[in-house]
Q: What sequence folds into this?
């Protein structure tokens, strides 16, 4: 059983490794940050990412940061899929 201590409580996740729990937590935190950009620019991250990849956004710092968050989530999701595949 994997247990994590968060603030003054302990959360246990049976059957999941610490790496899986950490990645899931990181993804949730990054998605919260994406939500801020989505609200600010009234655009989903999926639409933004497509426009960014096509070169249809400007080079403002917010867009560079937003794109970085999208890429970080994609990388974490790939690692999480590999970790979960190894736990089957």
A:
């Amino acid at each position: 059983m994997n247990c994590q201590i968060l603030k003054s409580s302990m959360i246990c996740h049976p059957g999941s490794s610490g790496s899986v729990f950490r990645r899931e937590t990181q993804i949730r935190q990054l998605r919260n940050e994406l939500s801020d950009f989505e609200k600010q620019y009234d655009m989903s991250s999926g639409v933004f990412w497509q426009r960014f990849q096509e070169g249809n956004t400007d080079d403002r710092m917010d867009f560079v940061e937003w794109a970085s968050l999208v890429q970080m989530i994609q990388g974490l999701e790939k690692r999480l899929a590999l970790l979960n595949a190894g736990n089957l």
Summary: The chain has one domain: 17-86.
